[in-house]
Amino acid sequence: METEKTMKTESGLSLYHPLVSFGYFVAVIAGTLLFIHPFFVMVSLLCAIFASALINGKKTLFATLGFGVPMFIFIAIANPLFNHRGATILFYLFNNPVTKEAIIYGIVSAGMMFAAVIWFTCYNTVVTSDKFIYIFGRILPSIALIVSMTLSLIPRLMAQIKIIADSQRSIGLDWKSGNIKQRVRSGARILSILVSWALEDAVITADSMRARGYGQHKRSTFSIFRFGKKDAKMMAVIVFLFAAEIFAYISGRGTMEFYPAMVVPEIDLTDIIIYILYITLGILPSVIQIKEDLKWKQLK
């Protein structure tokens, strides 16, 4: 029963081989960062939000939106304020021109960064540290271990800083109260305690690894992951969609001219096919997740 419960809480993409999951996120994040085009950015952002709601849950999605929306607004506003390129001047602000091209480019760039952030939150949920080490452990064991430890350290630091802040608050040293000088002093105290804890934890981890003989000789590996027919089929689909993505980028169909004047490219049959394939890539984890959810409902 516990195994069934654990499997049910996993995302549909997590049930595939780690190479499949990792390959998917390489493809979708690469497309998100390469395509400076309103259509591709919009598709990636909407698909990322929908996938995050299914994979991470609404609570995590809302937390991501709480960070991402201000970032989106900041980038969208900052670009036309500091970038004055563009042929269509809408108005002047502090004697500097604000152009239509800069505004649209700022919105597209902000959407691209926002979509990338959401996709990375989905990646962290699906490609866990053990899967990452499995993929790169034999090729680059030291680098894989460092990256895995770094990724796991970030949530640990966030949890520890909350514990420290709560402890300081209980003795009347809340960093949210008092004047600015007192708040800065309380914040510096919390940061100092956090750094001391992180250094001590690093020393303990190093001693533990040394005691277990890490790096002394070639180690053997054990894995529960098996690359089956289902994984091969899904990997073939991802490789095909990624190849279409690369073709779109090389052929210039995934980019759009914004400066000096915005040029909307004509759409032909090839563009429509590429759009459909890119949408397919974006909705793939959501379709897998919905399919798995329906399967579990039928088993109830």
Distance between the termini: 12 Å
Q: In sequence order, what are the helices and strands, one letter per element?
A: HHHHEEHHHHHH
Average residue pLDDT:
81
- Uncertain runs: 1-9
The domain tally reads 2
Helicity level: over 70%
What percentage of the residues does DSSP assign to strands (E)?
A: under 5%
How many helices? The count is 10
Lateral arrangement of strands in the main beta sheet: 1-2
SSE class: mainly alpha
Find the count of extended strands (DSSP E, 2+ residues).
Answer: 2
Topology of this structure?
Elements lengths: L1 H8 L8 H17 L3 H18 L2 H25 L6 E5 L2 E4 H27 L2 H8 L4 H30 L9 H32 L17 H22 L18 H31 L1
Antiparallel strand pairs: 1-2
Helix pairs in contact: 2-5, 2-9, 3-4, 3-5, 3-10, 4-5, 6-7, 7-8, 9-10
